Amino acid sequence: xxxxxxxxxxxxxxxxxxxxxxxxxxxxxxxxxxxxxxxxxxxxxxxxxxxxxxxxxxxxxxxxxxxxxxxxxxxxxxxxxxxxxxxxxxxxxxxxxxxxxxxxxxxxxxxxxxxxxxxxxxxxxxxxxxxxxxxxxxxxxxxxxxxxxxxxxxxxxxxxxxxxxxxxxxxxxxxxxxxxxxxxxxxxxxxxxxxxxxxxxxxxxxxxxxxxxxxxxxxxxxxxxxxxxxxxxxxxxxxxxxxxxxxxxxxxxxxxxxxxxxxxxxxxxxxxxxxxxxxxxxxxxxxxxxxxxxxxxxxxxxxxxxxxxxxxxxxxxxxxxxxxxxxxxxxxxxxxxxxxxxxxxxxxxxxxxxxxxxxxxxxxxxxxxxxxxxxxxxxxxxxxxxxxxxxxxxxxxxxxxxxxxxxxxxxxxxxxxxxxxxxxxxxxxxxxxxxxxxxxxxxxxxxxxxxxxxxxxxxxxxx
Length: 463
Fold this sequence. Notes:
By secondary structure, the chain is mainly alpha-helical. The chain has helices at 15-21, 24-27, 31-47, 53-72, 84-96, 109-144, 165-190, 209-215, 225-230, 233-259, 287-310, 324-348, 353-360, 367-376, 381-398, 407-413, 421-424, 427-432, 442-454, 456-462; strands at residues 150-155, 158-164, 267-268, 350-351.
């Protein structure tokens, strides 16, 4: 395919340089956006009297035909083309001759690619948000089923205080809810139209940038043409939001890896979402979770790639910026793949409630409640803390727990202990009393669930 820009050159581009320079292998996914932007562009050109109405209609109709032909497979991408923009323009010109050559009037590939990428990523953000909502719905459903499922809460991976499995899952709901907000913010910030910026300094043609911005679904045109072609903040922000979402999925995946191990045995993954060993017949491996942990590194790397790519670039466009697409496309593809795999794994996961409860009975996770019991009887917290610590030491020496330590042992350390201490430190009571907003009590978690269902998930159902 001949290069549109060859007039300045006396020699053909070296084939290896062409391959090195070409981006069609990855930017061809933006053909729909490229054609859509071009159709609105020629309509604007005719509205402004820059090209004739008849030429505009012919070009717009043929661009729609090219779109249909690409979708049907009648037209295949030429991997020898420099990029998707030149490919579509070349096909158009081959079909329409001189009329097709008028398409590129008053624009540059610099503002064209900036437009295509923003439009493409807006669409992908909507898709990712929808997938996150599905994951939230899955977590909420599992939480509703486990409002009374007591388990140990951990700090430093050491048993700390009693919570419920529902409370634990709803922590991830909050993380993913924030991820949605980040994506919405990213969408809003990128929703300005660069078309009309030209190569860097707009154009002498009397174009109507407000028209193209409106009809392409943007809030308005970008206010500086240099920024219009050189800005990739939106790629960096999206890559950051995706990396954060992946980090959250990785944390959840790590917990599922732990919970599904024989050492914890809090959950069992469905056979359809586990794998086995080629040599050890007893194995049931949480490979999905491990892959999500690993793929998180890719998304963090993509963010680093984009930041490093942009940090030393002078205004305006530089060819370095072609590297934005592979990085951000990989992040988008990766987060979508992980979300669509993690959600059904959570849906089908079996919660082993008895094992969680038994784990809660060990590790003295009701020690704080024992201290609080004394505080409510008038003791200062630090004194109550010291007494409870001594009780834990006695239990360890005797191989007992606070639940079955005889009352006389309690009374040796404080006469404020009465028979009601055993009710105060029962795990169910410990959890139920933590009913402040954000707490693990079933009634508090139920309110949290209802709030999510009436906001995030209600909007999802309406979508």
